[in-house]
Each structure stands twice: as C-alpha cells, then as structure tokens.
Amino acid sequence: MKSGRLTWYLQRYTALYFISFLAYLEYVFWTNGFTFDFLASNGLFKVSLSIFILLICAHAYIGLWTVGTDYLTKRALGFVSLGLGAVADFIRKIYEVIFILLGVSIAAFYLLIIWF
Amino acid sequence: MTFVTFLMTQNRPVNINLLKIKLPLSAFLSITHRVSGILIFFLVLPLSVMVFSELTHSQDSFDNFMHSYNSNLGIKLGCIGLMLIFQYHIFTGIRHMLMDFHILNESLSSSFKSAVVTLILFVVNTLLTFWVMI
Questions:
Q1: Residue range of the domain that includes B67
Q2: Any idea where the domains of chain A sit in the sequence?
Q3: Total domain count for chain B?
Q4: Contacts with B, A 25-54, CB within 8 Å
C-alpha cells in the first residue's frame, strides 16, 4: 500500500477507535460514576487509554502534517508576504519538529502517569 | 521564475488567494475542523495531561480536583470549553468520514444540508454537555 493511501486510512480508522473509546467512557461514567478507582486502577481503561493516546499522536501527526503542507508553503505563505513565502520550507520544518516533540512528550507523560 | 515572483509581475486579481475566498458553510466546517484539531493538540491535550495526573495521583488529589471543579466556576467553564473543542472536532470529523466513505453524498447541496445538520447536532450536544457538567 502506498504511504499516502495508508496514512489516509490510518487517520480514519484511528478516528473510529476514538469514537468507540469515548462511547465506552460514556457508558462507564453513566453507569458507575466518575471515580478515582476506575481512572487509577481499571485494567481495561488503562490499556484502552494507552492505545487511545498513541493513536491520537498518529492521527495528529497525519493531520498536522497535512495542515503544514497545505498552508506553510511558498504559495500559501507567499499570499501573506513574499518574505515569509521565501522561508516557508524552513518554517514548515520548524513547525514539524515542534509538533513531533510535543506529541512524543504528551504520549510519554500519559504512559508514565498511567503505568507508573 | 518561481510562482511567487510570477505573481509579483501580475497586477490582475488572484482568485485563489486563501485570505480572500468567501467560505460556503461546508468550507467553514472544514476549516474549523482543522482549527479545532490544532487547538486539541496544542492546548487541550497538554492541559489534559495535568488534569489526568491530578485525577489519578491519589484519592486525595482526585477529591481536591473535584472540589476545585465544583467550587471554581472558571475551572468548570474551562474544562467544559476544552471538552467542547474536542466534541466539535468529533462532530465535524464524523461528517467528513461519512462523506469520505460515500455514506453521505458529496454534492454541493447535500454537503450544505449535512453541514447544517452537524451544526444543529453540535448545538444540542453543547446544551447537553452544559446540563451534565455544570
């Protein structure tokens, strides 16, 4: 499978997981209430939340990359100012490094909080 | 000659200027879906790390957070606001997926109708969220 096709499907299948996970949370909170015990020690919740966070990072990577390659380009930034357009590739690279670092940090923090 | 320098030599109006396009409703939903996605990643998720850490650190820190939530209207409205950004992304995202998988027709008129329905459902959802969370 070509990588563009793969990421297109990955972004949508991860979204289906998010909807299922949120439906599961709705069900739990409506039936058992919002409790410390559930958040801190329910095994199914901890595993499914870990997967949720990792998939969010993958989903966000695809989405933010798409947004970057749509708007942080010579053409799009060139409409704002020609100087900005000239350094568009550099700006987009910086933006990509920032969201990758933030994504890795978010995933790392969540996994540490969930499991340690 | 790059595209940008090409534009400099032209004095005619440029219709594809992203800042000058008048947005139809479906395009408004599309762009706000992107904006909400960016807000989720750069704002909602980092803040949710802090909240989740408080909620799961100990029973005491859980009770503390719930107490601040119930006694401080700012914290309460802040949390509801963050949740609504997330929910908006989900509502508009479901509409996009229904079109991607051809369950909804992609014609101009039906995409306008589905945009209206999505917005109405989101308003109802917003009222329900306030009703449950306040």
A1: 31-133
A2: 14-115
A3: 1
A4: 36, 39-40
Q: Residue B60, class by beta-carbon neighbours within 10 Å (0-12 exposed, 13-18 middle, 19+ buried)? A: exposed
> Nearest-CA distance from B109 to chain A in Å?
24
- Above 80 in pLDDT, residue A96? yes
B30 touches B21 (CB < 8 A) = no
Rounded to an integer, what distance in angstroms lies between the CA atom of residue B25 and that of residue B115?
Answer: 7
Under 8 Å between Cβ of A61 and A55: no
DSSP 8-state symbol, B23: P
Q: Is the Cβ–Cβ distance between B75 and B82 less than 8 Å? A: no
Q: Smallest Cα–Cα separation from B31: which of B44, B18, B41?
A: B18
Q: How far apart are CA B100 and CA A116, in angstroms?
A: 40
Q: Report whether pLDDT(B7) > 70.
A: no
Tell me what ipTM this predicted complex has: 0.93
Q: Check which CATH number belongs to the domain holding B126 and give it.
A: 1.20.1300.10
Of A36, A56, A67, the CB nearest to B38: A67
Residues of B in contact with A9 (CB under 8 A): none
- The DSSP letter of residue B107 is S
Whole-number mean pLDDT of chain A? 95
The answer to the question of residue B21 being in a domain is: no
Dihedral sign, CA of B89, B91, B97, B102?
Answer: negative
pLDDT for residue B99 is more than 70: yes
**Is residue B98, in this structure, part of any structural domain at all?**
yes
Distance between the two ends of chain A, CA-based, in angstroms? Answer: 37
Give a yes or no: residue B19 inside a domain: no
